[in-house]
Specification:
The chain has 255 residues and is mostly helical. Helix content is 65%, strand content 0%. Helix 2 runs parallel beside helix 4.
Amino acid sequence: MKPISPVVPERYDRLDALRGLAIVWMAVFHFCFDLNHFGLWEPRQFFTRDPFWTTQRTAIVSLFLLCAGLGQAVALHGAPRGWQFGARFWRRWAQVAGCALLVSLGSALMFPNSWISFGVLHGVAVMLLLLRLLAPLSGLSSAALWLLGALALALPHLVQQPLFETRWTNWVGLVTRKPYTEDYVPVLPWLGVMLWGLAAGQWLMQHRRAVLAGPVTALLRPLAVLGRWSLSFYMLHQPVFIGALSAWVALWGQG
């Protein structure tokens, strides 16, 4: 009797490479921010108000969340009814939520007045739950997720309430002004990007699967590998950058 070979999960190289591209772009952005923070960039940059930096930040977060939505479409494709919250999902969710907590603790040590209470990983953790709840809507109408995503994107421009100004409530996103924090990725409007990623991913899995699963060139293969370790890279890159720049400043001073 032949031994049963373990099932190896299929890799979606093009999706991994897209996620890897987002990781590299984010790392370059953060390294520039760190150079500026340590006074090693002249002239000094204004990351919170210069359109060159704010536009990049929006694009990077959008690409990350689009990939997250596409990834959920892949994970749910062909899954039986009621499988949305299986053990595999909860393992990954716990990793994301645990890393979000570590980000809050680390940022509180480095930026006590502007620590991260609801950044990109916090947003992803909450939005993953919402996506799994909303995914069955596509079975009723393929347009449902697109319309819901558009509503999520539009709502913060239509509704702003002082009720959502505290750290306990600003995660919703219906704020009258952006809170003073190092990272802020509220559920609204960003859930809209993830919903569009989910909707696009479900369509691609049904009609153009090769767009996500097709092979990549040798030049892009490192990006695909990096994209498979996106969470680990996300958690490690800033401590490495900050540690290296701190050592540089301690040894050679600020420029």
